[in-house]
Amino acid sequence: MLEFTIRQIFVGARPPLDDAPALIDFAQRTAAGTLGVILIDTFLMASLVVFLAAFRQLITQVRPDLDWVSALAYGAGIVWVAITLVGDGLEGERPWMPARSTRTRTSSARSRSGTRCCSARSDAC
User: Fold this and answer.
1) Where do the structural domains in the chain lie, given as residue ranges?
2) CA neighbor of 92 nearest in space, from 41, 44, 45
3) Most distant CA pair in the chain: distance in Å?
4) Which residue(s) pair with 116 in the sheet?
5) Residue 37 class from Cβ within 10 Å (0-12 exposed, 13-18 middle, 19+ buried)?
6) Cβ atoms 32, 10 nearer than 8 A
7) I need a labelling partner for 88 at 20 to 30 A (CA). Which of 42, 53, 82, 113 fits?
8) Angle at 30 between CA 27 and CA 31, to 5 degrees
9) What one-character-per-residue DSSP string does 92-113 give?
10) pLDDT at 109 over 80
């Protein structure tokens, strides 16, 4: 609930994806709120891992025949935590990424005929 509140109050709605200057401004303006959400999410995921491990241990102590159910729930929870943390890592990188130029890059490698190649490792060069 706290994560949702921070995202709504401090971060706000993101501009459209085709408006690059507004996206850059949004990322720089909301960097602290985004990192706050990521920090809260990291602690929530750590708590969830502890809960999943304790719950699995509790199930295997009480009903050893249901060990497969506890292992399945634990594995699914760990996968969910991993996917969430990867998404948080990608979201956390966003505010500090330098703005990319809209120009296309061409290699300075030239072919034998003197024309510019599209890549240095191209077979046509």
Assistant:
1) 2-96
2) 41
3) 77
4) 110
5) buried
6) yes
7) 53
8) 75
9) HHGGGSPPPPSSPP----B-TT
10) no
Contact present, 4 and 41 (Cβ < 8 Å): no
CB 92 within 8 A of CB 38: yes
CA distance 38 to 91: 8
Q: 87 is written with which tokens? A: 């998404």
Q: pLDDT-based confidence at 64, cuts 50/70/90?
A: very high
Helices (H) and strands (E) in the chain, counts: 4, 0
Q: Which residues contact 66 (CB under 8 A, 6 or more apart)?
A: 59, 60
**In angstroms, rounded to a whole number, what is the distance separating the alpha carbons of residues 125 and 111?**
4
Supply the pLDDT for residue 56: 95
Sign of the torsion formed by the C-alpha atoms of 18, 6, 40 and 2 = negative
| pTM beyond 0.70 | no
Question: What's the rounded Cα separation, in Å, for the pair 105 and 94?
Answer: 22
What confidence score (pLDDT) does residue 83 get? 94
Rounded distance between C-alpha atoms, residue 26 and residue 50, angstroms: 35
